[in-house]
Amino acid sequence: xxxxxxxxxxxxxxxxxxxxxxxxxxxxxxxxxxxxxxxxxxxxxxxxxxxxxxxxxxxxxxxxxxxxxxxxxxxxxxxxxxxxxxxxxxxxxxxxxxxxxxxxxxxxxxxxxxxxxxxxxxxxxxxxxxxxxxxxxxxxxxxxxxxxxxxxxxxxxxxxxxxxxxxxxxxxxxxxxxxxxxxxxxxxxxxxxxxxxxxxxxxxxxxxxxxxxxxxxxxxxxxxxxxxxxxxxxxxxxxxxxxxxxxxxxxxxxxxxxxxxxxxxxxxxxxxxxxxxxxxxxxxxxxxxxxxxxxxxxxxxxxxxxxxxxxxxxxxxxxxxxxxxxxxxxxxxxxxxxxxxxxxxxxxxxxxxxxxxxxxxxxxxxxxxxxxxxxxxxxxxxxxxxxx
Length: 388
Ligand code: ATP
Ligand code: MG
Hints:
Blueprint: E1 3-9, H1 19-34, E2 40-45, E3 48-53, H2 60-67, E4 73-82, H3 86-96, H4 98-103, E5 106-113, H5 122-136, E6 141-142, E7 149-155, E8 160-163, E9 167-171, E10 180-184, H6 190-200, E11 204-211, H7 218-235, E12 239-244, H8 246-255, H9 261-279, E13 285-286, H10 299-306, E14 313-314, H11 322-332, H12 335-338, H13 360-366, H14 372-381, E15 384-387
Parallel strand pairs: 5-6, 5-7, 10-11, 10-13, 11-12, 13-14
Antiparallel strand pairs: 1-3, 1-4, 2-3, 4-8, 4-9, 7-8, 12-15
Helix pairs in contact: 3-5, 6-7, 6-11, 8-9, 9-10, 9-14
The protein binds adenosine-5'-triphosphate and magnesium ion (MG).
């Protein structure tokens, strides 16, 4: 019995004319994700992707684990296939599902008939296979309403497929199907989660980190690189842009009223992010901002940073509670790294009494002594790019 993987496509099946394009992107992403595990045949039929290993020693469980994190998939199964006759289907189900059937207390069979020439109706096939499974596993009751375990049979054009209960997929839309954006990645808890959530909507991302050596250490940078590595599991390979930020921070400190320090600093982050975005055909800037969390995340403070931008800022965490963000952070596996105690450039110089409800005019005045264009140019020239 040869095990294969079936993936059910998500939202993109609704996309009408773009469906084909979305599907091609998904298939490419799957191919990329499996590239170092062996050779696979990957085909899509009626919103289901069939993945079959072509080399006998391929570890299908490894492939399955990876595919759980591919966006655009709502559910996935390991399955076997067999000839399309009811006796073979029943025998195959008895053998393939024996571990599940030994564990279950109750079960039912659900059949789908994609091949309308198959001689039994779906109900007849379910009854036939259900009866035989009952005879072979007498301790497992048939329960049509709330079974522990559902045996799925799909009779398709080329074969019959048999599988147990589906596993939930990563959801969202295929990476790359919704354009590109830059994402501001600190070493904190929030920004890895905001990065994940926007990638989930199909957006390919370029992470940007503002680095203030020697105020922040190489260990702090290393931490961001490691967080970036974890995110590649969802976001695919990325190039981290590490922006030297020390000089800008020192210039702000020396030339601006200190109450406005953080607000002016955030305007520089936005300007630099927009520059990197336009150099890379990115259409938005993603941040981990969260309304009211800190002094620089009031509505007025956000307006002050966005005052310097044309591109939209995407803030997927804006309305979440910290607890919800932490939950997501644990789920995607970045939490433990994020709580390692290294400093961030944002905390290098923090005013004791920051301006929390600034007037945009006042922030513009506060930075008027700075040569913003030159400072941005210098920072962009000094960018270090790290392939993740
Ligand atoms: P995080 O947990 O993501 O660090 P935070 O709650 O600490 O967020 P802030 O420090 O106010 O919030 O930063 C708000 C957002 O600005 C971050 O979520 C991130 O997107 C971006 N940001 C902050 N510091 C940096 C940095 N050093 N490099 C890149 N982006 C940053
Ligand atoms: Mg932070």
